[in-house]
Amino acid sequence: MTVYGIPNCNTVKKSFDWLKANHIDFEFHDFKKKGITAEKLNTWCNIFGWETVLNRKGLTWKKLTKEEQAKIDNQNSAIAYLIKNTSAIKRPILEKNGSAILIGFDDDKYQQTLA
């Protein structure tokens, strides 16, 4: 299991706590330190949809002007933006055996998918 995110994110911390409480081993991939590839982002966008992978609720997105936000209107423009602004990737994203299975944190979905 690999958890993708940033360490100071409260949602990532909730994910860590859930995984530890349920005795599920995982590795952590820190976007800030290790970055992310366009290929990985494309894979996630194809699974979850680019509009889900792009976190529009966070400060990174909200700092953009309305004009800048309007230009991010498809998967390619979203991926170009996310590579440069990894804090705008919805998190955490969990992969099991190299395949993305969960995005964000939802106790019920974690229970259904991982328990």
Automatic annotation (TrEMBL):
InterPro entries in the record: Arsenate_reductase-like, Thioredoxin-like_sf, Tscrpt_reg_Spx/MgsR
Leader peptide range in chain numbering: none
Domain of life: Bacteria
Protein name: Arsenate reductase
Family matches, as PANTHER family: ARSENATE REDUCTASE, PROTEIN YFFB
Family that this chain belongs to: Belongs to the ArsC family.
Pfam family, one: ArsC
